[in-house]
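One example copied in:
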Amino acid sequence: MSGGSRRHRLLSGVPHRSWPDGMIHHGARWLLLALLAVGLVILYPSDPGVGIGRHTAGTVADRDIIAQVGFPVPRDSAELRRERGEAAASVIPTFNYAESGRDSALASLGNFFARIDSVAVADGVAGISSVLSASAIEASAADVEILADTGRAASLHDLAAAAITTLTPDGVMAPGAASRLTTDSIRVVRGSRATVVARSSVLSGRDFYDRALTGQEPGPETDLLRLVLARYLAPTLVPDELRIGRDIEAARDMVPIMEARVLEGEAIVRANDQVSDATLRKLEAYRAQLRLEGISVDSSNLGGAVGGLLLNVLLLTVLGVLILFFRPDIYRSFRSLVAIAGIFALYFVGAFVMTGLGLPPAALPIVFVAVSLSVLWDGRFALLAVFVLCALTAVQEPFTEVPVAIVLLAGGSAAALSVRTFRRLSQTWVFIAVTAGAYSLVILGFQMQGESSAGLLPLAWALLTTITGAILAIGFVPVFEWVTGITTDQTLIGWADTNRPLMRRLAAEAPGTFAHTMQAANMAEAGAGEVGANALLCRAGVYYHDVGKMARPGFFIENQHGENPHDRMPPDESAAVVRDHVVEGVRMAKRERVPEILVDFIREHHGDQSISFFLQRAREEAEKEGRDPPDADHFRYPGPRPRSRETAIAMLADSSESAARALDNPTEERIEQLIEGIFAAKAKGGQLDDCTLTFQDLARLKRRFVRFLGGSHHRRIAYPGTKHLTRGATGGDGDER
């Protein structure tokens, strides 16, 4: 085995050994997957990181630092505390006016002097001292003597009551509340009415005492009056602590905590500018915002790169496993996998360019991928690849928003499902219209939800990308075919044209073979459609299956008019001529660059079955002449046996059509018996062992061939003028001669 063929076997097909063949076979696929995953990490780094550097106030910046994200700049903490303190101190405190405080004070005062009078009569000085002690009034002996004097006590009572009655209506604050005041005004709430009054218009405890003692001569009586008022004065202005606290907090909160806001793209500091304290605060705020958003600062983002690589590998592995289990034919072909990877790479490079140009997600070339894969394989595989590709796109840094994946999924899925084999270029506008319609609906849906990125511009780009992607994909078909070795339906349509040189030659040089070819092609196409095989491939393949007969057309019965040259030839030479039409056909097809998939029809339409007519003649002659029986291998087609459903259908259609031409009185029953016999002979001879036709497929093919041949070979009326020319043809066994 040559080095090239061994490498091909290791990379494509089924490896014969686990080691090293299997390792190389699967390892090459993993390497392809890894290269694509690494390429995506390089093309779309998950977090490129931002360099800020270290700066000191008073130094000069060595480069421009431009904000890649917007962020607020907090104020200096000391300045913020100072301004919040000033705001709290400027809050006007609220006091509730308690009119009941005056009445309560008068009642308590009256009760005190009543007890003094009572104990003075009963207990004298001792009783007065006990009342003062119980009232928490620290009185001296002189104070006790004053209270023991009924007249002086009554005068003291009158002075205290007059002070409370006269001075409390303006409002009196407790000494502690007054000392906490930091404003020149207070808010006084009387019932449901609140009034802001000057601090000087209300009295503190000290102010009250000073006003109450105005005009009094210093002495023991004045000192005792102060002590009594201090004990029984009830403030009429009570601070509303809850409201004051709430107002203070509101005032503190009103002080802005942010100094400024830097917009995305704004310069934080310019090269050669001096770095100030304010600049340092901006840089620290920028650093904090970047970290908050998960962007690395002043370091390589190794974790982000590894995470992106892991996601890429996982999603590509999903696609690889799905191909392995559900499309093993693609997995076995390394060239096909290279083509898929190349299509994905083209998509992501195009997406990278479009992102750099600031185009909307609808402009991403997902349609190019969907159409290419649909044309190369089928819509179901293209749909599967589109789903994985959309997920793979969604994990790349520029496309992480949900609408991006949905828009791509809608357009790609519509393109994958709407692409069909098209015989005219104008038919491409059908799936372009379907895809554009899908884009329109999803963009309209997002627009109705208020999505800011929706609108006419994305729709216009979606239409442009759909048209461009479809045209590019169709234009790239020859390149994809060259890379993968696949012959697409679009290429088959061209080779199924009867105006191609080989077909024109066949019609001119072997008209009988050409007529048989057309009939067999129609029959194979009908049968392929019945069992779900590629009908177009069957038609195109059968067109070329007998082109080798052009080398010696007169040696084949459908082209003969008169004497049969085989009647004068030894059977081994006749068998060689018949066998050589396969070899000659392959040679002619290769010279005309016929695709290999069609050349297989030439090789396989007879398989390796024996040329039974001439083998039997050779045996009869050998027996008559007393020679050894002939070697059966000399009377056998070169093969191989049909390896696909389509070439197997071509073999059955070719034999059935040839045999039906020689059938005498072709009734439906006789045609059915003929077809049954041909199918049974092919199966018994092992000619169908290497293809994937099932027994159910064979049963359906029999019924379809019977209907087809019944319609083609139905009995016709013998007209009087030509009756002498029409008679049943003599039978044959279907061998080509």
User: Anything to note?
Assistant: The mean pLDDT is 83. The first helix runs from residue 3 to 11. The first strand starts at residue 65 and ends at 66. Strands lie at 65-66, 71-74, 94-97, 185-190, 193-198, 237-239, 258-262, 267-269.
